[in-house]
Amino acid sequence: MKKPVPAPDADSAALWHGLRDGMLLLQHCADCGHVQYYQQAMCRQCGGENLSHRPASGRGKIHSFSVVHRAPGPAFKADTPYAVLLIDLEEGPRIISTYTGGKPEDVVFDMEVMLVCEKVNDEITLPRFRKA
C-alpha cells in the first residue's frame, strides 16, 4: 500500500520545488519582517502580499515530539515506531516533521536537529530531520 503524498498547489509550489533542490524555503514578508512556514499568498502577521522565498538554514531545536507506536493506517505500519517532531526552526517558524537517522527513543526535548530532504518521487521531496 502506498503512502499518501502532499498535493502542491499555487501557494506551495515554491516550497516543493525548493525541497526537490535540497532547500527548505521560508517566506519573508518585506512589509513587517515576519518569517513563515507553510507558504501562503499573504503574510499571516500583517496580511501583506510582499513575500519572498529564502532558503532556511535547515537547523532547529525540538520543541515537542510524540513517538507513534500505532500506525494511522496500513501504509505506515512498517514505519512504527517513529517520532513526530515539532521543531523551532532557527529562523523562527515551527514545522512538524518526522525524525530520521536514529531510533525514536533517542529523541529528547531541545535536541538540535538538521534538515534531511527525502525524495519520495520526481515531484515530492519531504522535509525530515536528524540529530545535528
Write the layout of secondary structure elements.
Blueprint: H1 13-20, E1 25-29, E2 35-36, E3 51-55, E4 59-68, E5 82-89, E6 94-98, E7 112-119, E8 125-131
Antiparallel strand pairs: 1-2, 1-3, 4-5, 4-7, 5-6, 7-8
Q: Strands of the biggest beta sheet: in what spatial order? A: 6-5-4-7-8
* Largest pleated sheet: 5 strands, antiparallel
Q: Helical amount among residues, as a percent range?
A: under 10%
Rough outline: globular
Structural domain count: 1
Radius of gyration from CA coordinates: 15 Å
Question: Which runs of at least 5 residues are low in confidence (pLDDT < 50)?
Answer: none
Secondary-structure content class: mainly beta
Structure description:
The protein has 132 residues and is mainly beta. The chain has one domain. It has 1 helix and 8 strands, in the order H-E-E-E-E-E-E-E-E. The strands form 2 sheets. The chain has a 5-stranded antiparallel β-sheet. It has a 3-stranded antiparallel β-sheet with strand order 2-1-3. It starts with 12 loop residues before the first helix and ends with a strand.
Structure, briefly:
The protein is mainly beta.
Key features?
132 residues, mainly beta, five-stranded antiparallel beta sheet, three-stranded antiparallel beta sheet, 1 helix
